[in-house]
Amino acid sequence: MSSWHRGKQIDFLTIPEIGFEIATLLLYSDFELAIELVERITDNSASKNSLDNAFAHLTLFANEMNKKSKDCIADIDVLNSKIQNTEVKEITKALSFLSAEYNVDEILEHVEGFSNFNHKLFLLRNWIIHNKEDENIGKAIIYILEEIVKTSGENVPNATTLSDIATPLPNIKSREEIKKLILLFDAHKDSINKPTKDFIKLQLLLAEALHSLNLEQARDRIFEVFLLIDELSDLSINTDCLSMLWLWFLKYDKDHSIEKSIGMNFNIKTQIENNIEILLNKTALHFKMVESIISTIIIIDPDFIFNVIKKLNTLERRDLAFKFAIENYIQRIPIDEFDCFLIMKFIKEIRNSNLNQDIALEIIDRFYYKKLNSEKYISKLLNFNEYFLNINKIKQNCYIITHLIKI
Description:
Blueprint: H1 3-8, H2 16-29, H3 31-41, H4 50-69, H5 76-81, H6 86-95, H7 104-112, H8 117-130, H9 137-150, H10 159-165, H11 175-186, H12 197-211, H13 215-231, H14 235-252, H15 257-262, H16 268-282, H17 286-297, H18 302-310, H19 315-332, H20 340-347, H21 353-368, H22 378-382, H23 385-389, H24 394-406
Helix pairs in contact: 2-3, 2-4, 4-6, 7-8, 7-9, 8-9, 9-11, 10-12, 12-13, 12-14, 13-14, 14-16, 14-17, 17-18, 17-19, 18-19, 19-21, 21-24
């Protein structure tokens, strides 16, 4: 009996997640079989859109697979044609454009074909986030902000959406474009519920863009941000926002002149330390209280974060916090700037061997996806040699060896 005939005897309706996983693997070897399996495991009686959603998932996976392999392993058009719901079909096609392979003019041309404003917003918001280094990114931001203004009677943007769209602002070189964008963002200032973390993030991004344009205006905006943070009665959110402001100071206020203008006795690092002490004394959920602070500060003051984590109340929470901190560091710091001794310092603090060894995959992935310039990174990678040799989990070992060979 063939393996596929035996597979037909399995009731995948009870384990659809396994069926979908097998279908994605079949895309590599038997495209038609993958489609047949998806049709079999999807219970249309549960939801009339379940089959559409299944093929949407398969289309997106195949699109990513084709991009990574730089070859047409799976026919995207065939998969997309299986989707009957026009809305699902449109948004799936839109998602396939979330790639640096498409320039801003191609994206805008594609978006013009959308009748639904939310689809336009979804695609451009995500494309902007993933292409913030694009030198023409301002064109996409201006387009979507003007679209928001046109539909303001029906669509009121929230701070999360606007802060996501504003992410590339500090990278834009054109002074005239920055001026126009700041005016467009400020046009929505009164319609947003504030203060929130996302609103603070948005204002800090605008201040970052202003810093190269008009230092006085940047200073004034930072002072407004501080007053907004001061209004936040929730100490946890207040501290998260202070950590974002501290990050801004460390980047753009190296002489502390703006920080000192807030108050002669004000020191943001001391304020954050005091807040953390109060938070840790008030609740047992220590990791939850400092998670956002770790994510914000790890890239600029890892020693501060190391000392904060050491104060957490249980070994389990300290392990999770050390892993979370170093994963953030690995993902966000350029490989050229990796402090390998610092990374190992955090890893050695993790007592849970599973968590400890999982970080090895994060390190390998960062080097693996830089493999086109691998020679210049070999010396960095060798710093982790002893750590890799001590990995005793078979899955991790296989992953490390196979990827090291390709680097």
